[in-house]
Amino acid sequence: MASKKMEQSGPIKRFLGQIIAKVKQSIFSALLSKIPIAPMKRFFSLLVVFYFAVVMPLQAAEKRLPLKGEVFLILEHTAFLILPKQPQAGKPIPWVWYAPTLRGLPSNSEKWMFERFLKAGIAIAGVDVGESYGSPKGRAVYTALHEHLVKKRGLAKEACLLARSRGGLMLYCWAAENPDKVRCITGIYPVCNIASYPGLKRACGAYGLTVKELESQLTKHNPIDRLELLAKAKVPIFHIHGDKDSSVPLEKNSALIKERYDKLGGPMTLEVVKGQGHNMWAGWFQSQNLVDFVIKHATKSNLKK
């Protein structure tokens, strides 16, 4: 059964504007024109309270998960957490950090993997940062989620990152600044190169920069240029990627990560699938090698609190 919960949306000014517009179009507008100023102020004060207490939740979009879990807010962004039925008592819970957690994701495609993670005692979590493309704002929300899950939910300090497609930009950009919080990185045709996808013209807005500004600062943000600290920490990486991927070309993303990570002395496995592109082939989401890799590293006995 899919899990649902409400998320906050819409600024108060827009809400009040909509309410006022509707009021003016009704017979009630005539009554309002006769209310003295003081009662009018009290009316709008009550309206504000009503907005935060009632309307916010009712306006919220629903988040559906492929398995039963909890949906909550982190810095006004929708997050989710799916816990194993019987986590190991007295120890931090190992977990998989999934991205991108956009509308409709994770989907039923991930159910096969998630079921196996949960059976191994591994939780799954994520947060929707929109089309952040790995921007600093998105990273800040990721940091807030990590802090919440570790300090308040009992999850392990080190997460196993699972990046699907453009989730690669989101997770790699955060991981590059937090290698001590990463147990391993896995990717299903992950985007690792902003210039390759979505391109500087599309990504610059998320970074609050012009195309030229992002181009000049690209090495500060691009995953393919930020592998040194991950390699130094010996963070293991596993990617599965097709050699016919025209959306996220293998040679500009996973293959380039592999080439550079090898030179830096970092451990990485790249599984290239012949004849496959950027699609919904079941093999991407039912990769036993990927699942085994995650479980192996997630359940190591030296998990940190």
Number of strand elements: 8
The main sheet comes to: 8 strands, mixed
Mean pLDDT: 87
What share of the residues lie within helices?
40-55%
* Assembly level: single chain
CATH architecture of the largest domain: 3-Layer(aba) Sandwich
Pairing-aware structural class of the strands and helices? alpha/beta
Named CATH topology of the largest domain:
Rossmann fold
Gyration radius from CA atoms, angstroms: 22 Å
CA-based shape = globular
Q: State the low-pLDDT regions, or none.
A: 1-13, 48-61
Please give the CATH class of the largest domain: Alpha Beta
What's the total helix number?
A: 13
CATH superfamily of the largest domain, called what?
A: Alpha/Beta hydrolase fold, catalytic domain
Domain unit count? 2
Distance between the termini: 32 Å
**Beta-strand percentage?**
15-25%
Q: Order of SSEs, N→C? A: HHHEEEHEHEHEHHHHEHEHH
The strand order across the widest sheet is 1-2-4-3-5-6-7-8
